[in-house]
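testing teh design pipeline on a random one, pls ignore if ur not involved
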């Protein structure tokens, strides 16, 4: 049994504005938590306490897992802006009393320190200046190839720690913060032990899906690499890497804790030592049993995971010092999540599939969504989650209430209080689906990533905010609105048609670009024109490469400049095989002609938005025209496929970005 630390993960700075600051934390006991805030002074001067009220909301998610959202409010007026503020946290339970200092987190020479040089506490600032620096990126997998570029943000903060213009004022994590469907074999024993220690037995999946108690599934469920057939047959998932797919809330929670904090890694290694392949093999922990192949894969993934683990302390410090906003993409729950109407019908019609989606979304809420905009989750929503996880009884009123509450929720989108404000889109749960006839088969079109109902929600959100027409607008979309034109066109023309032959290419290659459904793409542009921003900046991830582009749009007599900055992956290099070679060839051809802007015109034919090759033939039906310019990156290429983290700057030179 491992010794559980006081803090399991965090502190993570979440929503930060002049009237309130939220800090997220996971602990192993139900501590009473308070905070102190300080106006940070220059070195040699004493930090000044700032009078605040603290209100902590705690949710128990397991026998030793408590999630806290600590709200700091000024006693009078508002928090000072454009000035460094530092914080300390105080924990009390019976005779136990701690603060960040007694937990060795404020000591500058300690490997787990949360502070940067020149400060006594973890710090942040509320930016209202026109100049700002924002971090953004997506796709961070422990056994992904290459180094963890989120850890490089730590070096950036060290370099510009006391510079309000160059130090990041916020971080946007744009999806795939975990890979629930793609778990490295060496992590499985860790995940199961953490789940057992923190959650307890949890839900009985056999009650959810009785087939798990029958051959062959009962022999697979708890084996390393044993869940592919369970994911495909019983969940109806489409991931090709689902041999260790997370299925329960406790497993999802364990993965988050391992992704964001070093403390459980340290506790596990201290109590058990490093994971050894031979020990696991002797205990018959694997499925199947080809030893040589298993050992090679296992050792390769251990090396990648160790590389990841070595940077987690830096990541933890970044998250403690930069206000962070998070939105899901598919892998946070499962690969291809809600990609087509057929996918939804099959997965939500399978009891284990539906249960797993609900478990993943619940973990997303607890570890990511809650801190984005805490006021959007009322007490009944939280109570339904807490009551189910307290009992984890299947087919009870609390179970069905939990399932319905989490799956029916329609408010995952939010506004982040940056300057200018940032509208964060949910492109997963508010989709619309269309079909078309091919020979004797009805096929699904690529989905509208946000349907009409979703745009109504977003329009209402904008109108209720302080944003006004003529202001600049920042938007996060997991998938870029403007992708790399030649890549998207090549896939759509040459690969996507194979669906008509029954080949599920939409699942293999994630056909989810905005432009794959032009009606959905147009609805995005149309909404932007209605809002009338002075300019629009879109921050994205998802595609596993980084690029910079600008679109000059003409629509309904209006002109708008849209800047598309995309950073992906943080840690998951994916273009080393045949598909990567093809992509790089397309990139090379793009680099040759990248000086030529891409000019496109779109109109209506037969009630459907179409690309127009000859504008003269149908000028009356012209809907919009766009000129897209792609910019070279630091490497000289138009696209970066190595791990990267985006740095977005707004200054006297306008808007721009570069990559870590």
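output:
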């Amino acid at each position: 049994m491992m010794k559980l630390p006081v803090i399991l993960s965090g502190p993570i700075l979440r929503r930060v504005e002049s009237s309130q600051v939220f800090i997220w934390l996971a602990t192993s006991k139900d501590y009473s938590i308070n905070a102190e805030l300080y106006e940070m002074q220059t070195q040699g001067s004493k930090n000044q306490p700032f009078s605040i009220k603290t209100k902590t909301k705690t949710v128990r998610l397991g026998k030793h897992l408590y999630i806290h959202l600590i709200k700091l409010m000024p006693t009078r007026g508002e928090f000072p802006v454009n000035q460094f503020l530092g914080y300390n946290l105080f924990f009390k339970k019976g005779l136990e009393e701690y603060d960040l200092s007694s937990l060795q987190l404020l000591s500058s020479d300690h490997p787990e320190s949360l502070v940067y040089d020149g400060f006594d506490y973890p710090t942040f600032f509320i930016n209202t200046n026109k100049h700002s620096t924002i971090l953004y990126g997506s796709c961070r997998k422990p056994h992904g190839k290459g180094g963890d570029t989120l850890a490089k943000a730590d070096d950036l903060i060290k370099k510009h720690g006391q510079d309000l213009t160059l130090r990041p004022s916020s971080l946007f994590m744009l999806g795939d913060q975990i890979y629930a469907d793609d778990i490295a074999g060496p992590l499985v024993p860790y995940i199961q032990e953490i789940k057992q220690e923190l959650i307890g037995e949890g839900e009985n999946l056999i009650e959810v899906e009785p087939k798990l108690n029958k051959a062959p599934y009962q022999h697979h469920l708890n084996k390393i690499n044993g869940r592919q057939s369970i994911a495909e047959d019983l969940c109806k998932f489409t991931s090709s890497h689902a041999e260790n797919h997370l299925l329960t809330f406790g497993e999802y929670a364990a993965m988050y804790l391992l992704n964001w904090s070093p403390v459980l890694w340290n506790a596990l290694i201290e109590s058990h030592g490093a994971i050894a392949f031979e020990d696991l093999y002797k205990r018959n922990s694997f499925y199947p049993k080809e030893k040589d192949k298993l050992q090679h894969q296992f050792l390769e993934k251990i090396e990648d995971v160790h590389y990841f683990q070595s940077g987690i302390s830096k990541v933890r410090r970044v998250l403690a010092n930069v206000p962070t906003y998070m939105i899901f993409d598919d892998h946070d729950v499962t690969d291809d999540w809600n990609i087509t109407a057929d996918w939804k019908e099959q997965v939500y019609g399978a009891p284990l599939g539906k249960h797993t989606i609900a478990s993943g979304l619940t973990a997303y809420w607890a570890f990511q969504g809650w801190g984005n905009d805490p006021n959007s989750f009322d007490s009944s929503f939280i109570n339904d989650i807490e009551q189910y996880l307290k009992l984890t009884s299947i087919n009870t009123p609390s179970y069905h209430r939990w399932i319905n509450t989490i799956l029916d929720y329609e408010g995952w989108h939010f506004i982040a209080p940056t300057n200018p404000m940032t509208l964060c889109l949910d492109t997963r749960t508010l989709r619309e689906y269309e079909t078309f006839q091919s020979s004797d088969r009805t096929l699904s079109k690529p989905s509208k990533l946000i349907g009409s109902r979703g745009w109504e929600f977003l329009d209402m959100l904008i109108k209720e905010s302080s944003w006004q027409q003529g202001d600049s607008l920042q938007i996060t979309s997991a998938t870029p609105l403007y992708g790399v034109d030649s890549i998207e066109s090549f896939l759509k023309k040459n690969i996507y048609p194979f669906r008509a032959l029954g080949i599920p290419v939409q699942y293999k290659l994630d056909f989810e670009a905005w432009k794959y459904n032009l009606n959905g793409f147009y609805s995005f542009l149309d909404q932007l024109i209605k809002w009338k921003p002075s300019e629009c900046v879109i921050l994205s991830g998802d595609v596993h490469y980084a690029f910079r582009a600008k679109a000059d749009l003409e629509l309904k007599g209006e002109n708008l400049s849209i800047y598309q900055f995309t950073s992906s992956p943080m840690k998951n290099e994916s273009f080393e095989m045949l598909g990567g070679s093809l992509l790089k060839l397309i990139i090379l051809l793009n680099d040759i002609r990248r000086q030529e802007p891409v000019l496109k015109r779109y109109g209506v034919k037969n009630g459907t938005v179409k690309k127009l090759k000859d504008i003269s033939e149908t000028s009356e039906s012209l809907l919009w025209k766009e000129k897209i310019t792609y910019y070279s990156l630091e490497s000289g290429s138009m696209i970066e496929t190595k791990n990267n983290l985006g740095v977005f700057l707004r200054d006297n030179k306008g808007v721009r970005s570069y990559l870590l």
